[in-house]
Sequence to fold (703 residues):
Amino acid sequence: MPDLLKRLASIAGAALILLPANADPAGDALALAVFERPANEGRVATMKFRMISSGGQERTREALMAHSDTGDMTRIGIFFTAPASIEGTAFLTHDADEGSDESWIYLPVTERTRRLPSSDRGDYFMGTDLTYGDIKDNFRFDPADWDFTSGGTVTVDGRTLERLDGTVKNDTVRAELNYASFSALIDPETLFPAEVTFTDAEGEALKRIEVLETEQVGGAWTAMRFNAENFQTGHRTEIHFEDMRHVPDIDEATFDPDILAYGVPDIG
Amino acid sequence: MRGFPLALLTLLSLAATPLPAWAEAAITSKTLEIDLWSGFDEAEGEAALARATLRPGLKAKFGRSWRGELAVRLELAEDETGLGTVDTFSDLSRPLARSNTTRIEIDTATLTWRRSSTFLTLGKQTIPWGKLDGLQVTDRFDAVRRRDYVFTDVRPDRISRWGARLETDIGEWRADLALALDPTVNQLAQPGDRFSPTAPRQRAGLPEGVPLPPITVSDRDDIIEDATFGLRMTRRFDGGDVSLLALSGPDTDPVFAQGGTARMPEIRLNYPHRKLYGLTASRSAGSLVWRAEAALIPDQAVNIEVGPMLAIDERIRWLGGVGLDWDAPGGFFVNAQIAVDHIQDGPEPLPRPETDSIATLRAQKGFRNDTVYLKGEYIGSLSDGDGFLRPALEWRLDDQFTFRAGADIIFGDHDGLFGQFEDKSRAWVRMTWKL
Fold:
């Protein structure tokens, strides 16, 4: 039995014992495996956004993305370099296992770093079709937010994928995430969703995120190209990474909100 | 020591600093912003504002440790709003071209050295302290542009000054040490301009309608005597942060002093030194972010009303304010703030209320993937009962071009902070290209 399946089986066994009677152990096990998907300690890349309106009008964004995962804290910094209208804008998030999640944004026009509300997970990020929550979650589904159901194995274009469905645990999460449910097709090798469709807080079909390309970076699978399409607006966002590097020891200062004003950091 | 020789010396010293990577200089960014802003006064039936601004900017790297930034503004105006005073600038910072209709001014000229979280920035820069938006409680380091009063997009509208800034970590605290060797204090509306104050409270008690004698500005070129320096210490904790700060330097708001002679009287705008001790804090809590600031100025110079002559006293001044950002349902962003500004009672009355209370409320919502914004803003004096409303539409047509339209609807009595401009309401449009 491959290691991954063994791991899934053991997690499923533990879930059978620990979870309430109405839970779906297989769904929980798959979700937990995705949630605990190994991540590298740090990576840096150029992040390129292409945003297309329903009328075909395009906007582009380019940023340096730095991502650090120390086990008890995940930190993401996004430092915009183009176009000129948003150059210098920087977004930073600290997602702690314990304590409050914190986010900041630096806008050059105000010359100040501004703390953001911690419950802004459902707000859209810089005009894209991704929410702040999507960016923080990095294609994971937090068991604190969702109840899971397994939909079994499906085959799509010759790929064998595991279906995972989720519904929000309560109205607070629904309001924070602006989602009511999702349906994902998980690649059992990478534990990345090949596709996720979300419904909005009212349960209407909202958007689809497709992960088109993954790569091993520092021994961990990483999404390199993905699209998000909003069914309600027809707006689409295409994101891909270039020059992705494994940088296990990114300088702490890169993720310091006091330093966002100094622009794109130089990372080894 | 007068400004120019020292500025030259500073620049020569900077140039001589052993920058090991001059040879590795690389331009990292070149930008040009073109901004056209025009306003219409319906009551007067004419253009109230016609201003064009070009802002070329350049950023460069010099190896791994040094970065440079240069940004210049070229302003052209043909309106009654005006481009503001220049004698409130020091020789060092005064606009290079300074006619009533054309200005060229250096906005930023900095060299920054970095090692990990330590930054040393030398050159012409701003020091944006404080937590509240536009309400200056502790945010009093920088010189401020007041030619448009507060009817601007960003408040305060800062003026950069020559100096140095060092930021570094000391244990759990972040230290921010700033020095401005530049006596520039502000940029005011010129007498007779659209937003030249007319209320007695902002003219040392001189009644509205009374013509002012010629106005002069105290000498602004003693870069040592009129230096501003300050220290801010910030500590972050789970979900929030707190700062303690102290600063000393010339006030950025003037007091009126008697000048000239008995036969040829003048009003002299003085900018006496004051110290400020402050505290700021912010904390996120669910859909809210709270911000708070408090400041004590123990030696605030104020005009007092003692007779026909202008008189100045020194009083204790307390300022405090709280604000919150609310990530409201429906995608609305709401920001609400209130601040109180109290000046110690004394034997002679002040031309302003002892306590001013200012409230602000801003709500905005983005549409069409944040390409269209509807914004509404209220700023008012609860003590004077006046204020203004600013409804606005912002349309980001593409990556380079933004169109904005709105109005400044000013209300209140003629002797109030905002009401003095009650007949200066205007509708405006603004077009910005950033290339």
Notes: Residues 15-19 of chain A have pLDDT under 50 and may be disordered. Chain A touches chain B through 44 residues (CB under 8 Å).
